[in-house]
Amino acid sequence: MYIRAYLRVSTQDQDAQRARADLEAFTQERGLRIAAWYAENESGANLKRPELFRLLADSHPGDVLLIEQVDRLSRLNAEDWDRLKSELLSRKVRVVALDLPTSHMMVKAEDEMTMRMMDALNSMMLDMLAAIARKDYDDRRRRTTQGIQQAKERDKLKPKEERSYKGRPANEERNQAILAMLDRGCSWSEVCAATKASRSTLLRLVKGRRSSED
Q1: By Cβ atoms counted within 10 A, which residue in 58, 118, 137, 160 is the most buried?
Q2: Lowest mean pLDDT among 148-152, 157-161, 179-183, 192-196
Q3: How confident is the model over 49-100, as pLDDT tens digits?
Q4: Structural contact between residues 24 and 194, judged by C-beta atoms closer than 8 angstroms
Q5: Edge-to-edge strand ranges of the sheet holding 36-40
Q6: 114 and 25 within one domain
Q7: Same domain assignment for residues 17 and 117
Q8: Same domain, yes or no, for 97 and 44?
Q9: What global pTM score does this model have?
């Protein structure tokens, strides 16, 4: 059995380092070690994740896919989540998440009956947390879209020269929403999809905030 750690990282380096440290601590406490790391900056809302599928391709039956939180693995809709679960099942890969205590004993070999029972329970809990993660993703996108629309409506009441949604000057309300999403750990892909901002805009905002904090 090999433990393969998967990091779907945000744009903030400190988040990636914290997650990596937490995964290392988890295995060390159990006298285990992580055989390989797989990290990428992709949206959890789609299956276009090369590193995740490289991990699965490298895996053997009984290997463990270790993640910090279930939403690092999936913010997928129901259809895509079923596809990913089928891939995990066909490869007999066990999913262990730090935020899913029922999965923790999957990293150690037990008798077959216990493992089958825990696997069934773990699968049910994974389904529930994956559904919650998707709902949170949808809710955040909806709130962001609503916030932008409300800002546009308020803009219409301002003199034309003071409006922010004409492209320039920068829309500060949208920019703050973008930074807030990044602070919550959303990937660049998720933020761009929700706000329609370009990656260059995100980079400019992140650099601008860092400069102001220095």
Answers
A1: 137
A2: 157-161
A3: 999 999 999 999 989 999 998 988 888 888 999 999 999 999 999 999 998 8
A4: no
A5: 36-40, 3-8, 64-67, 94-97
A6: yes
A7: yes
A8: yes
A9: 0.63
